[in-house]
Structures are given as structure tokens and as C-alpha cells.
Amino acid sequence: MAKKKTLFCCGSCGYEAQKWMGRCPACDEWNTMAEVEALPYRQSTVRSGVKTKVVSLSDVSAAAEERYVTGVDEFDRVLGGGVVSGSVVLLGGDPGIGKSTLLLQAAAHLAVNYNVFYASGEESLQQLKMRAERLHIKESFNTAAVTDLEVLLESTEMIKPVVLVVDSVQSIYNSEIEGVPGSVSQVRAVAAELIRLAKEQNIAVFLVGHVTKEGTMAGPRLLEHMVDCVLYLEGDRYHSFRILRGVKNRFGSTNEIGVFMMENEGMVEVANPSHLFITRRKEQAAGAVITAIMEGTRPLLVEIQSLVAPTSYPAPKRTSTGIDLNRVALVLAVLEKHAGINFFGLDTFVNVVGGVRLYETAGDLALALSLTSSLKGKTLNGDTVAVGEVGLTGEIRPVSRIRQRLNEASKLGFKRFIMPGANRAELKADANEFRGLQLIGVDSIKEAIGVALLQG
Ligand code: TYD
Ligand code: MG
User: Fold this and answer.
1) Strand order across the beta sheet in which 163-167 lies
2) Fewer CB within 10 Å of terminal CB in the chain, N or C?
3) Does the predicted model carry a pTM greater than 0.90?
4) Residue 73 above 50 pLDDT?
5) Relative to the alpha carbon of 166, which ligand is closest?
């Protein structure tokens, strides 16, 4: 019987298609559809006569899941308080970003209390050892350089670890499946087996998955729906800090981030990251504005910088690093329409300092002020933080968790807050809480510019 094949978009998105298509409807890439053998259907439970036990939900006891603390606090927080036994965590990220380093550190901490197995498909044991020495790791744990899935499964059966690290899923090869290691069919099959292993033997499994833009290797997104927890390690290779972000977590919140610095001795946790991303100046430089964003439950101060300059091209350049270009276009349009500020014939460059990415609209007001500040060559007072969402009618819309943002900013010595009028009103009741701080509510973009840029 011919094996059933399915079409997948290889690499970045993993879209499953019913028929062949030239362009993937999910990620808009051309010629990425690849035919993949369907995962073998496992009939073992039927054959062995094992029946699923059906119980009433009320009879199920919600025993708290067992968690193993990795000892790397920032990592534990993103995981939701340690890794859950029998769960599969996918750690994705660009090659060279620090995934192996982070997991080796976590493995060393875990090895103090638990049986840990670190399976390396990419690096030799000598390389692993050299890295461990560089990280001053004293603890010992089981390691193996394996690329064959069978061997990996057998060694795991033998070692019976509590925590298994597979670095990386793309380097492991299942000889029963067609395709080279790292291909869509291989990655899916290998992951499926490892997930089964995790569930059957109650092992906490960390899978490393490289993100590849070229699509030559199957990316971790393909596995997102299969695993319990998906974390991405982000950052700029040329900056030393890294952000660990949860995108999916069946056992915790996905809003948490962990911040690390990549130092000579590995990943160093940054407990209070706000000061990293901002430059304290007595007087801000034109185009630089500080805002307070929320990363999960955590406020973070970041600096938005803009450069607005006459263009020498027929069409002005609009570039942005760290903020969605569509959001920048929206803010520019609102500034033109509702504040009478014209960006015609001007190049605009926007950057969030330190490689942070802004997903929140609460940074809109700071972005608008930053663009205006650069255009007009006027600065803001160096003690100022601005938060607020810019609406299409030029209004400044309220943001969530204003108190936490304020507290973070005041902790770092900022004195002046420009915020949505609605948020200002919300704070009226307990004015004492923020005594000595200048809280300025603004309702429109025009008003905000007037308040922010005239002084300073
Ligand atoms: P690595 O963990 O191998 O990345 P990944 O597994 O995501 O591919 O990290 C590789 C980079 O990190 C490498 O360029 C060297 C750097 N590095 C440090 O700066 N300090 C260290 O202590 C270590 C181990 C690596
Ligand atoms: Mg690695």
C-alpha cells in the first residue's frame, strides 16, 4: 500500500495544504510546499487490547503538576516556575543565539537534584566539555553525542533520566522515515517520538529547534502545535543581551520574558533589565523618547529613537527596527492629519534601543513624540517617560497597568510622566501615591506634542 503523503510548507510556517500550491497562503513564500510522508499510524494500543479509561471530570483529581526548578531564575519564570515532568519544551532561536549555552547551564543546575541526560546531535562531547569548562560547570550529568533516534531512545530507556535535553531536533535522524535530517518529515517524526517518550516515561524533555530563514531546514514553528511549551530566544547577535519569550505554555503564562546577557561565562541573568535599554541623559537628544512597556507582568523601560531627514530618493525611505512598520506608518499618518506635521519628502528611521521589539501599542505616543522631536530638532526633558496608544482620530487612548509602568519609571528616577488623560483621571483618587512626580494627562496627539516638546 502506498504511504499516505501530505503537503506541508517547509521551513518557517509548517502550513498543511490540501493540494499543491505555488505560494503558501500562510507565510506568502513561493515554492515552499513539500510532500511529506504522513506519520505512521500507531495501532499498538488497539492491538494490545488496552482500552482508554473514561472517567467523569469531577472524579479527576487536579494534583499539582510536578515541577523541576532549573535554577536559572529567568528561565524558570518563563516556564511558569520550572519545567513540568512529562512535558515537552521547545526552545527555538537563530543559530548562535545561545540555546545550547542556556540549556547546558540549566542542565547543570538540574543535575544537582535530578538525573539529567544531555543528548547532543550537533556538537561532539569534547566540544560540550569545552563549553562546560568555559561556563565553569562543576556538576556532572549523562551526555551522549547521538544523531540516530533509535540510539537516543535506547540510551534514554537505559539511563531513565528525569530531564532530557535534545540539542537539536533537526540533527536527529529517524532511519524509518525518508528525508535528510532537518527535513520536514524527519523533524516531525523525531519530535513525535520524543513527545511520546516524554508522556510515556514522564520525562521532561527540552527540544532545541533552530530557526532558519532560508527554509533549508524545517523550522520549530512546525512543531509548535505538538509540544507543551514553546520558548524563543531572541536578540541581536551583535548585542549581548537576549530575551527569552514564551509563545505557548500549557503550564503557565505566555506573557513572561526572561532577560539575559551573553557574557564570556555564558548567559547571565538580568533581574532588573530596564536600565539596560535606556540612556540616561540630563537632556534627551532630539529624537529619543523613553517609554514604559509591559512584557508580561513586568514593566520595562525602553528608548525609542527616530531620525527624520530630507530624502535624496524619489520616494522617501521608511525603515523601522523593533516596531512594526505598519504601526509607524499609522503614527506618521496621524501626525500629518491631526497635528499638522508633514513628513513629505523626509526619510524616517525608527529604532528601539538594544534590539528590543515592541509589540504593544502603548509605545505609540513615545514613537510620535520621537518622530516629531527629530523633525523639529526639539528635545524632551531627560526626566520624561511617555506612554499612550495613538488612535486614528488623533486621540490618546488609555493603556493597561499604568501604576506598574509608573512605579518602574519612578524607581529609575524619572520624574515626569506624559500619559493618556483617562489614565491620569484613574490615578486621581490616590494622588498621594505618586507625590513629587509630575503626572501629565493628555487627550490628543496635538496636546501631547505641545506639552512634551515646548519645555525641556
Ligand atoms: P550557542 O549556545 O552555541 O548558540 P546556539 O546553541 O543557539 O546555536 O552560543 C553560541 C555563541 O555564544 C557563540 O557565538 C559564542 C557565544 N558564547 C559566549 O559569548 N559566551 C559563552 O560562555 C558561550 C558558551 C558562548
Ligand atoms: Mg547549539
Assistant:
1) 142-145, 116-120, 163-167, 204-210, 88-93, 229-235, 241-249, 257-263, 266-269
2) N
3) no
4) yes
5) 2
- On the question of pLDDT at 29 being above 90, the answer is no
pLDDT at position 2: 52
Q: Is 355 helix (H, G, I), strand (E, B) or coil?
A: helix
**Confidence (pLDDT) at 43:** 47
Ligand 1 atom nearest the C-alpha of 102 is 2
Residue nearest to atom 9 of ligand 1 (CA): 98
Which atom of ligand 1 is found nearest the CA of 264? Answer: 20
Q: Which pLDDT belongs to residue 456?
A: 41
Check residue 435 and give its pLDDT.
76
The ranges assigned to domains in the chain are 1-40, 67-271, 276-452
Closest C-alpha to ligand 1, atom 25: 266
Instruction: Using the predicted structure, report yes or no on whether residue 410 has a pLDDT greater than 90.
Output: no
Query: How many whole angstroms from 120 Cα to the centroid of ligand 1?
Result: 15
Identify the pLDDT of residue 11. 55
Q: 405: CA distance to ligand 2 center in Å?
A: 36
What's domain 276-452's architecture?
Answer: 2-Layer Sandwich (3.30)
Query: What pLDDT was estimated at residue 331?
Result: 97
Predicted pLDDT of residue 51: 63
Residues with C-beta less than 6 Å from any ligand 1 atom: 93, 95-101, 131, 134-135, 262, 264-266
* Band of residue 45 on the pLDDT scale cut at 50, 70, 90: very low
Q: What is the distance in angstroms between the CA of the first residue and the CA of the last residue of the chain?
A: 77
Please say whether the beta carbons of 232 and 93 come within 8 A. yes
Report how far Cα 236 is from the mean position of its chain's Cα atoms. Answer: 12
**Gap between the Cα atoms of 150 and 128, Å rounded:** 22
* Residue that has been written with the C-alpha cell 543559530 in this structure: 95
DSSP character string of 427-439: HHTTGGGGTTSEE
Q: Which fold has domain 67-271?
A: Rossmann fold (3.40.50)
| Atom 2 in ligand 1: residue holding the nearest Cα | 98
Task: Name the more confident of 422 and 183.
Answer: 422
CB 35 within 8 A of CB 6: yes
Atom of ligand 1 nearest to the CA of 93: 7
User: Per-residue pLDDT averaged across 419-440, rounded?
Assistant: 83
* Amino acid, single-letter form, for residue 258: G
Output the CA torsion 99→101→106→110 (10° steps).
Answer: 120
Q: Which pLDDT value is given to residue 282? A: 67
How many A from CA of 98 to the centre of ligand 1? 5
